[in-house]
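Lab manual, section 2.4: Encoding a predicted structure.

Procedure: take the sequence of the chain (301 residues), apply the prediction step described in section 2.3, and record the output as structure tokens. A sample record is shown.
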Amino acid sequence: MWQALSTTLLFSLSAVCAQRSTVQLGGAAANFCRIWLAAAFLALWAHLLGGGVSGAALPWFLLSGLIGFGFGDVLLYQALPRIGSRLSILLVHCVAAPFAAAAEWFWLGTPLSAGEILAALTILAGVAIALAPAEHQHRARGVLIWGVIFAIGGALGQGGGAVLSRKAYAVAAAAGQNIDGMTAAYQRILGGLAVGSLFFAAVKWRHLQTPGAAPSLRAGLSRVWPWVLANALSGPAVGVAMFQWALQLKGTGVVLPIVALTPLVIIPFSTVIEGERPGLRSLVGGGIAVAGVVALNLLSL
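Recorded output:
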């Protein structure tokens, strides 16, 4: 499952870059810029080398992107400035994995063995031990509550989008078609573009109603464009392409717990980029989670 592990690495880099760009641009603008950049990159591949917007699974991939790329990421980018990247990513991945596995089990009939369930729970437990807040965050109660609500909403969007992608691959297989990961990511992001763009337009319109309150997107991008570009490529472009490839090979109950390691893999990136030093609990939790990943891979062979 190196595809899922690659996804984890890329998503971790994307999360750090997202935090940097969100602080400078705001959640709506940061999400808007990176999703359009990623769409342009994926469009080049899909229309020159891939399947473009063809295939029997196209409606399902569009719906998957609408839920995952669209509503899921919009909500995540509202959680990031409120509760930070660590807690946001923790909530998103730890809630998305069991939600998606349960949804796929009941809807698509993809069961998990007892061993796979135990390994998945071990991964999530390790992530929780490593990243659960040690003390109350010094944030206003309302900000904290809304941040958690947005993050959980983002988790439901990511989990729902993953299950819909599995459905899309099943439809493509039934039609005798093979969709590569980059094309699938492109078809998905087209659904997300609509939601992300409409949300950005709504936020921009609201800012314009208050004279002097609208930040300059061009001025902000001039300061953080490397972070926005890196976020676009490592997240919704190449990262999601690897994610789609992993989902094509394995169910969400196997893929999403591995991707749930993202908050742990963030640690070396945040150490280098933000100067953050992991504590003993992060290392212990990381060891438990890695053990769960090894067990899950052995059980899925």
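Check your result against the sample. The two ends are 9 Å apart (CA to CA).
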